[in-house]
Amino acid sequence: MRTTSPAASPSTTALQAVARYGYVPSMLIGLNGAGIAVAAAGAPKYWLVAILAVAIATGFLVERIIPYDPEWNHDRADGTRDRIHVAVNETLILASVAAIPLLAAIVPAHQLWPHSWPFVAQVLTAILVADFGITVVHLASHKVGVLWRFHAVHHSVTRFYGLNGLMKHPLHQTVEMTAGVAPLILVGLPVDVASALALAVAIQLLLQHSNAEYRIGPAKYVLALNEGHRFHHLKWAGIGDVNFGLFTLVWDHLMRTFSYDPARRFDSTQLGMAAKPDYPNGYLRQMIYPFTRRGGCASEATTTPNGATQTSTPDPVSKNRC
Fold first, then answer.
1. What is the total count of domains within the chain?
2. Is 37 within a domain?
3. Which residues lie below 8 Å from residue 202, measured CB to CB, with a gap of 6+?
4. Mean pLDDT for each 10-residue chunk of the chain (322 residues)?
5. How many other β-carbons are positioned within 10 Å of the β-carbon of residue 291?
6. In which residue ranges is the amino acid composition biased (Polar residues) (predicted)?
């Protein structure tokens, strides 16, 4: 139950206003812009890691200044696990970026990439192409049993905060990133553009899962940020099979999987997976669980909660997302 907070001081109110309206621009434009400048200059990649560290720290700070749900800021014996997810998955992303020159050397059509374009335009092009590939695999992961086994790790969360975005089974992340980046590599994606793209993905995931009640106005219908992505984490299959985009919601509008209700509020009782309320919580068990018999789909049916809002046309509601 929410309690009434004491009246905030003028300085606190001003800080909250800055966070509410300035957080997203500072991340999407400020830190991504810094990453693009670093990548364009060919600077050492550890500068990108430093920018990511600033993004994570900023996210944690803003989540405490303007929390959507203050309870989601409290560790539930999942903080260490989530940090392991971040370390493992970011290491894999950096390793894949480092492998691009080798891959480019064996790609016959590598000169198709628009090298003459301004660097910012190249990065934005890479983001749009990757967004399509990742969105398609994300949608498939809610339809195809073998993919859902691994994607379910991400949907086991019952509190919604920044690090959730990087809480993924590494095999599923590899499939998603391959779908997003492989077409780019085939046409000669430069490693510096890939580095800026990797940072943009990480920042986007932090924003998309943020426990911050920030404001982005009408952009919430186009950008895949937390207001829309909370609907994706509703625990009922069908109801939660919406808003699959990573960077944008354009493909969701086209696929009729977009869902949004400005009046809806979320809490932990609505998140997770109705089919698997006891999904393993520890990191190692989450790595192993998809390979077990119990890690597959449930078979019994379930119903949606009364009053649930959906504007898309999802599959019939059941515990079986396969």
1. 1
2. yes
3. 52, 55, 90, 93, 165, 166
4. 58 92 98 97 93 97 98 94 95 84 67 92 97 97 95 96 94 94 90 94 97 96 97 94 97 96 95 94 96 72 45 37 48
5. 11
6. 300-315
